Amino acid sequence: MKIIITIGSLALFTSLAVSQGRGQRGGGGGEQAAPAPTANLNLPPGDAKRGETYYAKYGCWECHGYTGQTGNGARLATTALNANGFVNYIRNPRTNQMPLYSAKVISDQDGADLFAYIKTFKKPPEAKDIPLLQQIINEK
Amino acid sequence: MKKGSVNRRGFLKGAAASAAALVAKPAEKAQAQQAAQTRPAAAVPNAAQLAAETGPPRAQVERIIENPGSDFMMDVIKSLNFEYITTNPGSSFQGLHESIINYGGNKPELLTCCHEESAVAMAHGYAKIEGKPIMALLHGTVGTQHAAMAIYNAYADRVPIYIVIGNHMDAAVRPGGVNWYHSAQDMCAMIRDFTKWDDNPASLGAMANSSIRAYRMMMTPPMGPVAIVIDSEMQENAMPVGPRPRIPKLTMPSPPQGDMAAVREAAKWLVNAQAPRINCQRAARTAEGMKLVTELADLLQCPVNGNGERMHIPSRHPMAGTGYQGYPVDLILDLEVQGGGGVPPNAKSISISSLDLFMKSNIQDFQPMSQADLAIAGDAQATLPSLIEEIKRQMTSDRKRFFEERGKRLSEAHAKAREQAIEDARYGWDSSPISLARVAAELWPLIKNEDWSLVGWQGFIGGWPGRLWNMNKHYHYIGGQGAGGIGYNAPASVGAALANRKYGRLSINTQTDGDLNYAPGVLWTAAHHKIPLLTIMHNNRGYHAEVMFVQRMAAERNRGVDKAHIGTRLIEPNINYAKMAETYGLTGIGPISDPKDMAAAFKRGIEIVKRGEPVVIDTITQPR
Fold first, then answer.
1. A52 within domain boundaries
2. Domain B69-236's class?
3. Among candidates B563, B552, B519, B517, which has minimal Cα distance to B538?
4. What's the confidence (pLDDT) of residue B560?
5. Angle (nearest 5°) at CA B503 between B500 and B508
6. Do residue B305 and residue A14 have CB atoms under 8 angstroms apart?
7. How confident is the model at residue B365, as a pLDDT?
8. Is the dihedral of CA B363, B369, B372, B377 positive or negative?
9. Residue B343 three-state SS
10. Residue A69: domain span
11. Residue A1 domain-assigned?
12. Cα–Cα separations (whole angstroms), residue B563 to B288, B569, B621
């Protein structure tokens, strides 16, 4: 048996509050609202192929989804960060939910590769182009 | 000896004597066998057969007990009007089991469960839909321990479950071997921390009294599970000579209401507050509770935060939510919030809770101490009518105008929150594995014109149904585990679907893979008892929250995160839940990993469920 730690507090509140809670924790791009620390890391060029391997190996998919669009974490598919900002961010995330990755765990090269892979993620369709969602918004 | 008057001790003694006689006469036995082998096909009765037909009854006849104590127990149970009894069979209640199916005509209907945790969790789900309990029948120490987690969940969720436990109480006549392992001096000691009351009655008369008393205590808020232990000897022996014990009349006490002076004060605070907010956890016990909370929100034009554990306000009601960004909360009204919710600095708070009337657990389910400035001990649902009337009495036309202005701004915030939910749902729309938002969005148009009921917990699926669907009935959502114990969702959903069946409702469960694997045999129970339920797997192939926990811990220790899957994921091999369902006798559909395939699969599943059968659709999903 296990006790749910993170979800239990959400369970108290309304479904709308669930949405807000997720936003506060970084869902909905909350982590991207302010720029990350921007020490110049002089990163090497990234390799998206290697980055794909690291995305799985380092478990990025666990909070950001397999396509960088879902989950509790920030939506990587629409990130406004550049490679330098991205690697700075993973070294020093602003939320406790996001694990901290030192250069010992993810080297600058690995970070650059990861970012190159993240930039290959497709953006989601617009809500106005999804009939199912439009039907829902038009309902009373 | 008079027929039916023999007790089991007498029978056991007689049986032992008969066995000894057989051992002592091997020669006679051999002769009888030889005679049987040589007799003609249409033989006339031999002397022994004639004696059996015409002579005095053999000692074996004395085994017949036509008025066992368990028949009386059945009369007691029938007086409580349960619709069902969930059970996994066991020798400690074999007497009652027989009385249920024969003497009682299988009413309440016995439901065969494959695990006691399933039996109790089914009762948990049933009670949240129906507003009244069913009975779970457990076997001794082993069945009670199996059931313990589900009992604790129900206790923390304040849900009534009537538990009856068999026990071989008298060691002097207890059958040997395994029955000793299954017996206890104080059977309920192991669940006493999380039951409201229990008893171990020593006679049928005491059993009748305690059974009625237990029902009353269970149903008086705060509600919770109760347990009655029934001795196997008492079940199997004949009724004692003499007058039949009286079964007390069941008269339910009215639920406790808050003190009127305190209610008047609370109304004064609420009428004068600039920006109150109502937090609800388990305030609405029935449809009436949801109606009252909604009426209070309409009256005060203030936000209601709390469809997490029960439905308190329609999800698309303008007052549903926490208010707009920067809503300057100056007063919180907590309705049956365990421990009290968070209170902003400089805000006051009022709590109305039956939990102030009853608290006993060694386990810390009571949550942090409430910081209420005005604490009203009483059942929130029972107190709300008085509070609403008092607010109406104290409200002036000036305050009414102020409330209306407040309400307009809150309505706008609610509409924006809805739009944001739609905006959020587009993320991952075309992803494979499938996004949870898309699962909810694809399902909604197929069910919205049905009388539907979401019977599984939506916490693990991002709350998407509540964000996208129009939930406006108390049975549209029933919350989650109570104590966060996994293994609740699958059986509780089957129990809730059972309650929904007689209303013809379409029951829907979004089911996590980790939870189903605790006791998947409940799928067979659903198939066997024809309980219609659409189960859509949220199959992310792991205990996903724990994957993230371990990953975070490893990262903080600077050791790398590439091993976080060890001990947390359900892969290698992957589990095929469609095949699992088919094995248990259900229709299994999938696995589906392309979101475009979902609508057709959901339509097919709904058609089958509407025919009265359970279905499992295996959907391979994003982690969260």
1. yes
2. alpha beta
3. B517
4. 87
5. 40
6. yes
7. 87
8. positive
9. coil
10. 6-138
11. no
12. 51, 11, 22
Q: Which residues in chain A (106-125) have CB-CB distances under 8 A to chain B?
A: 122, 124-125
* CATH of the structural domain B426-539+575-619, one choice from 3.40.50.970, 3.30.470.20, 3.40.50.2000, 3.30.1330.30: 3.40.50.970
Chain B residues in contact with A101 by the CB 8 A cut-off are 555, 561
Q: Is B427 on the interface with A (CB under 8 A)?
A: yes
Contact A15 B424 (CB under 8 A): no
CATH number at residue A57: 1.10.760.10
Nearest to B531 by CA among B565, B497, B502: B497
* Cβ of residue A104 closer than 8 Å to a chain B Cβ: yes
Ranges of residues in chain B with a pLDDT under 50 are 1-6, 8-30, 32, 35-40, 61
Beta bridge partners of residue B136, listed in sequence order: B86, B163
B313 contacts B294 by C-beta, under 8 angstroms: yes
Q: Are B91 and B143 in contact (CB under 8 A)?
A: no
CATH 3.20.20.70 correct for B260-420? no
What is the number of domains present in chain A?
A: 1
For residue A21, is it within any domain? yes
Cβ pairs bridging A and B (under 8 Å): 204
The domain locations on chain B are 8-63, 69-236, 260-420, 426-539+575-619
The per-residue pLDDT for range B324-374, each reduced to its tens digit, is 999 999 999 999 998 877 788 899 999 999 999 988 878 888 888 888 999
Query: What is the distance in angstroms between the Cα of A119 and the nearest Cα belonging to chain B?
Result: 15
Report chain A residues whose CB lies below 8 A from the CB of B565: 59
Host H or E run for residue B513: helix B513-516
Nearest to B555 among A22, A65, A99 (CB): A99
Q: Kindly report the CA angle at B125 between B211 and B379, in degrees rounded to 5?
A: 65
Per CB-CB distance under 8 Å, the chain B contacts of A137 are 418-419, 422
Q: How much is the ipTM here?
A: 0.82
From B480, which residue of chain A is nearest by alpha-carbon distance? A11
Q: Is residue A33 part of a domain?
A: yes
Cα–Cα distance for residue pair A27/A64, rounded to 1 Å: 9
What is d(CA B372, CA B530) in angstroms, rounded to the nearest whole number?
Answer: 47
Q: How confident is the model at residue A40 (pLDDT cuts 50, 70, 90)?
A: confident
pLDDT at A129: 96
